[in-house]
């Protein structure tokens, strides 16, 4: 059966372009086929149908619940990172049950306690930057993101254990920071353990050391339970399924690694992009500061989280540069038709978050940063989906947005920052994500003093 709109490029060249420069690859394909096209890409069983139309995305995500579509074996590319019990890889009832166990630790009352910790981590990181000396925002947000993981996820505050976790996690997480080193996940023949001098061998070595630390921490917590602890690991240890059974050590380890992988690279890049755009657009920064100043000198984290213009700025950041390029792949289980194209069982579908967010008919002038889009209009979950959608929506979405808003609010309200290089930043592959290629070079010019807010803050169009 003929798949819809196959690209007229050699399969090998398609795969190379997908690994090296996925943004240009997708944009060039969408210029020819704006709604749906078939490509040959590494990591998803080769032949993949990219979906770039909100109507088709809606059909996929709603029928996902009725099991017309299911998560494909293609997700197995992440297994070396997250393990077989990760919610990334579970399907059906097992996925639903384990997701229900993990969700309470990432929502609700826990957010307030996490919020104070996140603000403190951000304040400490920015306060240690020397004045008038350039720094890479991407490196700083990585440091903040990792400290949030160690303190909020594991409940580690200080000491040798925290330093050891910090060192090993950085080694592993930064190993695949370029498109070239990331290619080991997409080309199986590169997955050879040739010792720690080889990328794959180094990854396996670091991963094993991290596993030893995590399993030791789990064992210690089981032997010395503390009901007063409110970190995510403690909550997962106390979670019970419908039969009253706790998670096994391996399940805990896989869920923790999943949260680390999902929460480190993605949030660090999103915050760095936010800093970039806010300081590229003086009127955006001015309006955001006016909104933040209304809350006073020591705002409550939940009050920050609810700010409407800050929310719009974060949403527009995640629209114009979504950290995740695509939602989790689905596989057709029954004969269906999408956008007039018949698809047979076994066809692999990849809903493209990046291309949906770049559609001119949804977002006029999509290359322009305009937070007002999200003030003036409510987009459907099939038009704006930075965390994916359906039953496979990112489990850490609330915590990620919480962290993004609090870090940006802390930096902007307390420090005077400026971009060193105003040349446009471009997105570049970092593993499975997109990050600012040049790291967003910035400088701290001084502390900021809160201004008394205006009585009536009016909406100012930002272009």
Detailed description of the structure:
There is one protein chain. This protein is of the alpha+beta class and 463 residues long. The chain has one domain: Cytochrome P450 (Cytochrome p450, Orthogonal Bundle), CATH 1.10.630. The chain is built from 18 helices and twelve strands. The strands form four sheets. Strands 1-2-8-5-3 form a five-stranded mixed β-sheet. Strand 1 and strand 2 form a beta hairpin. Helix 8 packs antiparallel against helix 10 and helix 10 packs across helix 12. The termini are far apart.
Secondary structural class: alpha+beta
Radius of gyration from the alpha-carbon trace, in angstroms? 22 Å
Largest sheet: 5 strands, mixed
Oligomer: single chain
Distance from first to last alpha carbon: 47 Å
State the shape: globular
Range of strand content: 5-15%
| Main sheet: strand order | 1-2-8-5-3
* The first-level CATH class name: Mainly Alpha
Low-confidence stretches: 456-463
Helix content: 40-55%
CATH architecture assignment:
Orthogonal Bundle
**Number of helices, where a helix is a run of at least 4 consecutive DSSP H or I residues:** 18
Sequence of secondary-structure elements: HHEEHEHHHEHHHHHHHHHEEEEHHHEEEE
CATH superfamily membership: Cytochrome P450
Average pLDDT across residues? 85
Task: Summarize the helices and strands and which ones pair or pack.
Elements: H1 11-20, H2 22-32, E1 36-41, E2 46-51, H3 54-65, E3 69-71, H4 79-82, H5 92-102, H6 110-127, E4 135-136, H7 137-153, H8 160-173, H9 179-182, H10 199-223, H11 232-238, H12 249-280, H13 282-293, H14 301-305, H15 308-320, E5 330-332, E6 336-338, E7 341-343, E8 348-351, H16 353-356, H17 373-376, H18 397-414, E9 415-419, E10 427-430, E11 433-436, E12 441-447
Parallel strand pairs: 2-8
Antiparallel strand pairs: 1-2, 3-5, 4-12, 5-8, 6-7, 9-12, 10-11
Helix pairs in contact: 1-2, 6-7, 6-18, 7-12, 8-10, 10-12, 12-13, 12-15, 12-18
